[in-house]
User: Fold this.
Amino acid sequence: MRGRDFISIADLSPDELRVVLATASRLKRDGYPNALAGQTIALIFEKPSLRTRVSFDVAMQRLGGHTVYLPQSEVGLGQREPVADVARVLSRYVHGIVARTYAHETLIALAEHADVPIINALSDESHPCQALADVLTIQEKKGTLEGVRIAYIGDGNNVAVSLAQAAAMAGAHFTIASPSGYRLPEDVMIQAEELAVASGGSFRTATSPQDAVRDTDVVYTDVWTSMGQEDSYERRLQAFKDYQVTPELVQLAKNDAIVMHDLPAHRGEEIVDEVIEGPQSVVFDQAENRLHAQAAILLLLLGEASE
Assistant:
């Protein structure tokens, strides 16, 4: 995997996904080697973040390397300077670029013009680093990914896209319940179905949250209104009002089901306090695993050889 870009979960093969998860588990269990000493990554963030920025920063430091944080106000990506020029200049300075962008096309342009690996730290189309942390958490809590039943309740957004891909690739059974107008993109659903067939898993859409959650092992939700969608807030509140994760909904899942959320949570909207603070919630273990999953990606893309 050394030297490659990581733009989408679909960039990985099933075997490579297993390698990433095994590497993340090993780093978490055994500690971090000083494998990236002398290396530097640039963190280009058009959108602010708590978990993404800190986890990449800490992961790189633990691996012996350094980070340079570049907010949009400083870089002016695509505004003050063309994306292609930024990519080519940074390639002369750093060993990798982690980019958190509004438009997925910005990541594609960075990858086209950079001579160093580009890592997708979030775009409007996908969030592969979050999905790695998600499936790592499920594997830890359930002992496997194969055959695990995952219910995603809410918007078919970038988080749902990457989780559907990762779950299907890993042999899990993934169900998503979304209101009309907020479903996963059609091409993503087709791809997830194909990945699931190849892995022995399954992908399906549900007509209601209750149908999706019944007898499932994992209940997952995300915000109804993401950053940059504030103008549609009231419309989304109305569309998703029946998609809230409540104790009553979680009771339809298996007794040992876990509840997941990628954070930040809009408590009282997509999930209530009683659930996110309840005994089945693993959201803070999930947040911790952003660190280990991303450290694994950095090590595999920037290390001397695939681990």
About this structure: The radius of gyration is 19 Å. The first strand starts at residue 40 and ends at 45.
